[in-house]
Amino acid sequence: MSFDTQTLEIREIILDRIANILQDVYQEPVLELTEESIIAKLAFKGDPQLNELRLALDRIRRGEYGRCIFCKCSIDGELLRRSPTTHFCSRCANILRYRTSGVQS
To answer: Is 86 helix (H, G, I), strand (E, B) or coil?
Structure first.
């Protein structure tokens, strides 16, 4: 499986965030920062933030990461670096925010 540089960078961001949560919230030292060892630690956690990060790793493995789940367009790389669990491109996120804001047309 081949990943581009941006995807590898974001994958590392995701793994670092997971490791930090495991260490800071659950006091579980992450001695070996590998995807497999971290995923194994997630199996018994019901933490929604950890679950979102795990799902992002799953999308990377399946080759679906970085694409909007609605329109399938690419999601901006800077947005993914800031928020690696993002599911929507900026356009679809704006549409969703508008629709859920209670504004009626």
So the answer is: coil
3-state DSSP call for residue 36?
helix
User: For residues 78 and 98, is the Cβ–Cβ distance under 8 A?
Assistant: no
Q: What is the maximal distance between C-alpha atoms in the chain? A: 54
Residue among 3, 4, 9 at smallest CA distance from 78: 9
pTM of the predicted model as reported, rounded to 2 decimal places: 0.79
The token duo for 103 is 């504004």
Alpha carbon of 85 to those of 10, 17, 32, 41, 60: distances in Å? Answer: 10, 11, 23, 19, 11
The pLDDT tens digits for 81-98 are: 999 999 999 999 999 998
Structural contact between residues 73 and 67, judged by C-beta atoms closer than 8 angstroms: yes
Q: Name the fold adopted by 5-100.
A: Four Helix Bundle (Hemerythrin (Met), subunit A) (1.20.120)
